[in-house]
Fold these 4 entries.
Entry 1:
Amino acid sequence: MPEIPLVPSHWRFPAHPASVRRARHAVTESLPTVLRPQLGDSLSLLTSELLTNAIRHGACGEDGSLVELVLWSADGHYWLAVSDPGTGTPVPARPGPDCENGRGLLLVESLATAWTVRPRPTRGTSVIAGLSFHQGG
C-alpha cells in the first residue's frame, strides 16, 4: 500500500504588514517538533521575506485583499508557496550598498534549496521555495 502523504497546511492572511508575524508563527508551529531546530529559523525567514513581498508588491491594495500560504513536505523538502493576487513576476534586485530594501529575494535565493515563481491558474502569482531536511532515524 502506498504511503499516504500529509495534508498540506494552508492559511490566508489579510494583505497587511501585521500578518507577517502571525504567518511566521503559524508556519513554524506547523513543523514537526523534531524538525524545528533544523528548519524553524530558515523557514521563518523565508515566510517573512516572501509574505512581505506579496503584501508590498502583489496585493491589489483593495480592502479585503488576501495572501495565501501553503506548506507541505515532499521528497525530503519542506515547500512553502506564498500567493497573492498580483500579476507581476518577482525577480531578485541588485541593490547598492546604501539601499535599505530590495534584498528579500536574494535571501530567498541563498536560503532555499530551490525556488521559482509560477502564475496561478485563475489569478495571481505564487512564489515557491523549498528547504531540504534530514529526518533522523
Entry 2:
Amino acid sequence: MANAASGMAVHDDCKLKFMDLKAKRTFRFIIYKIEEKQKQVMVEKLGEPAETYDDFAACLPADECRYAVFDFDFMTAENVPKSRIFFIAWSPDTARVRSKMIYASSKDRFKRELDGIQIELQATDPTEVGLDVIRSRAN
C-alpha cells in the first residue's frame, strides 16, 4: 500500500529482512533506499553480523538520504549484554531538497512497517550518528 503523504510503497523485502535482523540476527544492519522511479522503499545493503558500526557508517552516502536499521550490542553498567535496534533517518544537508522532502514525508509510515524499532535517530551529518551518540541513546 502506498504512503498517502509521499506515494511511496514499501517492498516486501524491507519487512522480511528486518524480521531476520530482529529475530534471527542474520544481519548487523540494513540500509534502505527510496527508488523514486518505482515509487517504493527497497533494501540497498545488508550488513553481515560480523560487520562493525564503522562499516555501517561508511555505507551512508555523503550526499543522499537513506533509512537505516542498526542492531547495536552493548554491555550495561551491571555487565549484562543487551541489544537495541536503532532506526536512523539519514538526511545530509548536501542531499537534494526533493529527496529530503520525500524521505521526510515517507518516514513515519515506513517506520511503522518495521515492528520492533526501539530507538529513532534523525541525522544530517556523521557526528549525529557517531558511535558515542549511539552508545548514549542505547542506555
Entry 3:
Amino acid sequence: MIMSRIETMTFASVYPLYLAKVEKKGRTKEELDTIIRWLTGFNQETLEQMIEGTQTFPEFFAQANLHPNIHQIKGVICGVRIENIEDPLMKNIRYLDKIVDELAKGKAIEKIMR
C-alpha cells in the first residue's frame, strides 16, 4: 500500500514541503536546490522543470544521475535506518529526505555534499 502511494506522488507535490521545512529553519531555496542538484545530477533548469512538472518519484529518480557518494548518506529517517532499506526507490527517496533534514538542522552544505 505505501509503495503504491509513493509511486504516484509527484516530486512537484513534495518540493514545497521540503522548501517550507528548510525555510522555517532559516535556510534558503538556493541551498535546498544545491543539495538536490548534488544528489540528482540535475542542473538548475532541469530541477525547475521537475519542480513545475508532473514526474512521479519513480520518474524523477529514473532521470537522475545519482552522485557516486550517495552511499555515504547514512542514518535514520522516519525511524528507519537508510542502510537497511532494500527497495531502490524507497532508498533514494530516503536519501533525499535525509539531506533535506540535515539542511534544516543546520548542517553545512559542504558536509551534506559528502
Entry 4:
Amino acid sequence: MRRRIAVLVAATTTLVLVAFLIPLAVLVRTVAFDRAVNTATTEAQALTSVVGTVDRSTLELSVQRANAQGRFPLTVFLRDGTVLGAEAERTPAVRLAARGRSLTVDTDSGVAVLVSVGDSSGGQAVIRSEVGERELMRGVHRAWLLLAGLGVVLLGLSVLVADRLARSLVRPTRELSEVSHRLANGELDARARVDSPREMRDVATALNHLAGRIRELLAAEREYVADLSHRLRTPLMSLRLDAEALRDRQESERITEHVDTLHREVTRIIEQAGRRSSARSAPSGCDAVAVVSERVEFWSVLAEDTEREMRVDLAPGPLRVALEASELSDCVDALLGNVFAHTEDGVGFDVRLFAHEGFVRLVVSDDGAGFGESVASGEPLSRGASGSGSTGIGLDIVRRAADESGGSVTLGTGERGGARVTVDFGVPEG
C-alpha cells in the first residue's frame, strides 16, 4: 500500500509538472527569440539617421563602428547596388524591403531583420541585421536545465511527502495485523492502539472489543468444562467402587484400569481447555513409532476378539512428529476406532507408518465397503458429518491433529476396496 501511494503521487505530480513545465519552456524559448530580434532591430534602427544624413564615406565608417560595438552583424544595401558592412547577398527579401517595407525573415543560420530607410540621395536603402541561431537560443538551455531541476526537486518532495503520509496510514494497519495474529496464536491480552487515524481507530476499537468477547467466551467455556469435570467425578468414583467390589479379582483390576484411564482422559481434556487462553507454544513432539506401536498393541486385543486380521508395517524408529504424544494417540485411536465401529467383525485392516517427502505418513485402510461417493466431496472430514449414523467427530480429530503438526489428511480407497485414510504429520523444526 505504501509503495502504491508513492507511485500514484509520483505519477500525478509528473503529469502536473509536464503540463506546467512544457508551456513554460516554450515561453522561455519565445521570450529569448523576441529579445534577440528586438535587440537586432534596435541596432539596425540606430543607423537609420546616419544613412539618411551623411555621405557615403562617413556612412561606411559608421557601419564599421556599429559592427565592432554591436552584437549582430549589420549590412547596408544602397540604391545604386553598393553594399556596406558585413557581407550579405541581395536576396528577394532585401529587394522587397527596398520598396519601403521593413520585415523579419528566417534564414538558414537564424533570422534576418530588414529595415527600410531613405538615403541621402533621396533613394531607398535597406539595413540588414543578422541574428544567428546561437543568439536566438542564448540562455534558453540554461533555463531549461533549471526548470528540469526544479521539476525533479518538486517530484522528489512530493514522493517524500507521500511516503511519510503512506507510512502514517500503513503503520496502524500493520499493527492491527500483528495484533490479530497474536490473538490467533492465543495471546488474548493483545490489544490494538487507538491513537491512529479515525478510520483505523474504529477498526482497532472493534478488534479490541472482539478480543474481549473471545476472552469472555473462553472463560465461560473453561468454567463449563470445570463444571463437567465435577459432574463426572461422582459417576467415575461410583464405577471405581463397583469395580473394586467385584469378587473376580482380575475382572476388578481390568475394570478399575479402564476407569482410571477414563479419569485421566477427562483430566487431560480439562487441562487442554484451560490452556486455550494462553499463547500457543510449539509442541515438543514425540516418536510416532512408539506411540503408534503402543496403540496398535492396545487395539490388537479387540482385533483378536472380533477375528480381524491386523496387518502392521511400522518403519524402524524413531520418527518424530510435531505433535504431543497424547494428541497422536487420540488420532490413532480415532482411526482404529472407526474401523471397528464401521466395519463388520472379521474385516481386516492395515496400519502403516513410514517417512515420506519430509513428512511422517500414517496409513490406515480396511477391507470393508469404503467411504462410497462421499469421499469425492471430502464430507467425512467435516465436523459432525457422517453417513453411517456416527457423530462425525472421529475424522475431524484426525484432521485437526494433522493441521496442528503442519500436515494434511487424504481420504481414498484402499487396495482391497475399503476405506483408506492417509495422514501426513509435520516434523519438528531443527
